[in-house]
Amino acid sequence: MTRSRTTKKEVVAAFRTGEILAAARRLMGDKGVDALTMDEIAQAAGVAKGTIYLYFQSKDELIQAMLSQVGEALAREVEAVMAKALSSPEKLRLLATLFLHNVEKERVLFPLYLRELVRYKTGRETCLTPKLKELENRIMGQLTSLFAEGMAEARFIQAEPRLLAFLFKGLMRAVGYFQMTEGAGQTVQEALPAVLRLLFSGIVLPSPTGKDTVSP
Question: What's the confidence (pLDDT) of residue 124?
Answer without folding.
Answer: 55
